[in-house]
Each structure stands twice: as structure tokens, then as C-alpha cells.
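User: Predict the full complex structure for these chains.
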Amino acid sequence: MASTTETKQKKMLILKSADNDEFEIEESVGVQSETIKNLVEDGFTFVPLPNVYTKALIKIIDYLKKHANKTDSNDEEIKTFDKDFVNTTFDDLFELVSAANYLHISCLMNMLCQTIADRIKDKSPEAVRKIFHINCDYTPEEEAKIRKANAQAFEGQFDESLD
Amino acid sequence: MTVAMETEEEEEEEEEEEEEEEMIELGNLSNDVVESIFSRISLKSLIRLKVVSKTWHNSINNIRHCYPPTTSTGMEGLIPLVCKTIKRNKTLRKYESLSSAANNICEDFYPDYGGVEKYQSLQRTPVSTPKDKQLVRFTSHRIFSCVT
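Assistant: Here is the predicted structure of the two-chain assembly.
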């Protein structure tokens, strides 16, 4: 751990979540986020994050800490960590992906988007609506028309589960 | 078959433009996040997801899909080459139709600027499209002349 942070002399940052909780992290950990990096370059050490709630921020800080210490030797460990990280509910994933998008953490963003994509790609439109909390604004006639026009895409059985 | 599917979709888009539907929220995620997710889903699954809501339908029509290299990798020779060209031409055509859908969305999002946007796009399109179409036709002809 010390080896990666030596050059930065362990400068610390304070992140403040939308619910006013404050977290102290090393600068080298925080700058993996482009948003934080830009603020740090402008001389800020206190970073308010009005769009990120504590629950998501704790997980994201965990992620950043783990990935800040990435070396060849702990590659497997990080893979396991990532797997556990995305093994959660859709609502948690959505909160995390919004936070990662706001913080501009591209590797986390990629991982979360890929996870969500993989998990919804075989689901039925009805299940996807429930997962994303979307109200269908098509009339039954309009929906039937689209289904008919794209009949090929609606052949076969789809996953109706919501997890 | 897929070409037929596309033309029917375009017809639907036009109908939607006429109705001038209001935009609704994309669930609880921002537009760019949803589009980033869509770009990782296969085209077939995406077509199915168009019935989720009208907003999703528009977003799916707007994404720049990163095609997974399923058909063209691992094969060599003329047939994959032809397939690839056809696919590329199809994408080009699709992009043309997508851009018109995009203008429609701009109008929905920014009603104040809508008139200007649309006017600009009207001025722009006649210049660019015939050129593109000519180019597409030319390349596909060349490929097929090579086959025969």
C-alpha cells in the first residue's frame, strides 16, 4: 500500500455525501474519479458530492481503495472483489451507476453498465419495466403494432424474473 | 427480412413525429447512462426493449451501437466481406434515419430552439444525403460486381 502512495505523501481529501456524511480518503485514491481529480487540480481538498448518497459512496470508496492498490499479484483478488461488488440488486446497481457517472470513474462505469446490460438482455419487456420502474406509455394497440413489426425479436421465451 | 423490419420501424417513427409525443422520464437513470447500457446489448434484444416505453424507443433509435464482432471474426474470404459491407451500408442507412429521429428529440427537449434546429437540419440534409446514398450504392455495386 505504501509503495503506491509514497510520491503523493498521503495527501488527504474529504468527500461529503448528499446526506452530509463526510469521508476522509487519500488523494491518490480519490483522483481515480475524473470529477474529483479536476477539483483536486484546482486546489480543493473538500469535495461535496450532492448527487451521491452515503450508501453508494461507501461502496464506491471501497472500490476506489481496492483499485488504487492494483498490482499484478492481487489481480485475482480484485476480480473476486469486482464480482462481489456487482452482485447486488438492480436498485443498488442503478444508484451506483448514477454515482459512477457523476464521478466519472470510467472503469467502474464500464463494469456496471456491462453488468446491467448482461442482466437485462434476456428479460421480457414487462420485467424490464418493473426493474427500471417505468410506466408503459404505449396503448395496447401501439404495443401490439411494434411487436408485430418486430415479430422476430419476440420469438421464444424470456426471463420474467426481477433479479 | 431485417430490411423489411427496418422500413416498418421507420414508418412508425414518422407516425410518432406527427403525434408529437411528450417525453417521459427514463426510469430513475439519466439518458447517457441508459444509452451506455443500451450500447452493450445486442440489436435483437434492443428491438425487444423498444416496447418498454416510448422514451426507450427513442433512445434505442438514437444510440450509436457498437456492433459485437460476431459474424465477421474468425471467417475469411469473400462471403464475410460481402456480409460486412452489407451490414455497414445498413448501418449507414440506419444512421441517416437516426439523425432525423434525433432532431425530433431535440425539439422535444428544447422546444424553444426546436424551430431553429429543425430548420438547420432541413437545410443540411439535402446537401449531405444524396452524396451518401450515391457512395453507398457505389460500394455495394463494386462488391457485387466482384462476386459476379
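Residues 97 and 113 of chain A are 7 Å apart (CA to CA).
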